Amino acid sequence: MESSAAVETAKQIVQMVGTMLALGLFSTLVAKKAKIPDVAVFLVMGMLVGPQMAGWVNIPSDSPFNQGLLILGASYILFDGGASLRLKVLSEVWITITVISTIGVLITALITAGAAYYILHIPFIVALLLGSAIASTDPATLVPVFRQVPIQDRVAQTVMSESAFNDAMGAIVTFAVLGVAMGSGEFSLSHALIDLLKQSFLGILAGGILGYLVALLIAHKSHNHLAEFAPVVTLMAVIAAYMIADALQASGFMAVFVFGIVIGNQDAFGLAMVHEEKEKLDNYVMTTALIMRTFIFILLGAQVDFGLMNQYLGGGLLVVLVFMLVARPVTVFLCAGPDQRAKWSRNELLFMCWTRETGVIPGALAGMLVGVKAPGAPIIASITFMAILMTILIQATTTAWLGGQLGLLIEKK
Fold first, then answer.
1. Which of 147, 213, 240, 384 is the most exposed place for a label (fewest CB within 10 A)?
2. Contact, 226 vs 233, CB < 8 A?
3. How far is CA 85 from CA 51, 82, 260, 409, in A?
4. pLDDT in tens, 140-188
5. Which of helix, strand or coil describes residue 184?
6. What angle do CA 42, 232, 364 make, to 5 degrees?
7. 170 and 362 in contact (C-beta within 8 Å)?
């Protein structure tokens, strides 16, 4: 009897996976026709087929299957984003990336917390918990957007790198504030900085070492024994990079991002794949990344709680508007504006002010706060969903238009 129940559950999961793939294909065609990033269409499609509407996709957000799929999907999309970056470009903007990924997260969290405190009349510690949870940008959204919208390299790569590196900072600040809110600890700036440096260093180290070893096995002239299996090796290594970093209590997402950077810049290390094998790997990565973001954003849309959002709709919308239109611009101009090495133009700064989509990582943090029954968790979850919907549906869909208005679009190769 138990075996039969397990088989039926498995069949339901297989059916939902097939449904999501079919809906993803349809959504991709719609996005291509409408000339907007596909993640926005995936999100809307997920809302339409979720349990609160059509009911075709119903996978609980706290289920192992959902959590595993989000981790794998976000990791692979981050790897894809890292592989698209170029070390030469990053060397010009590393100061901006470092400052905006650390101090920038704090600035965004504090401004958003202030808005929530005054607008929603909630305790400041709850407001700060909300600001911390949604302060980091979302690589799973930004990477595919910039894959589809051809923006000048240094701008696109700065925003994508920020989204990868600020996840660790966002999580650290959230857990630090949570400890105070739950009465289990006091915030310590020195401990938070040490933890951030530890997570960053170990994540970069794990991703860098694994990336070089994989590059040797698929691209070295003498040791490329696994060149013809590069797609499988790469997928295995993405999982390994995340798990190794996680075991070291470091940022798994940072590790897979750095792994991607190394694989995408093999030439800089004196390694170069045979053209045919590289083309095969590129096609595999492109297809797999499409499947992963299909799953992630349809699932994310399907898990939007409309009832919860409706409870705090008016005040929540105002908070998210402050988050988008005040907190982000202040963060960008304070963190990137003074960078004399990068010498950002006004149009570049304005563009970065608009590209700060919220998605998988803040959604996961909000879900975790609900799970541990943190103070104000329902409010935090509600406004996090609003931030996800508004930033993806408004900002992601207007990225190409804004890039054109600011003269930052380039011709696709």
1. 213
2. yes
3. 38, 5, 8, 17
4. 778 788 878 888 888 988 988 888 778 777 877 887 788 777 775 555 6
5. coil
6. 40
7. yes
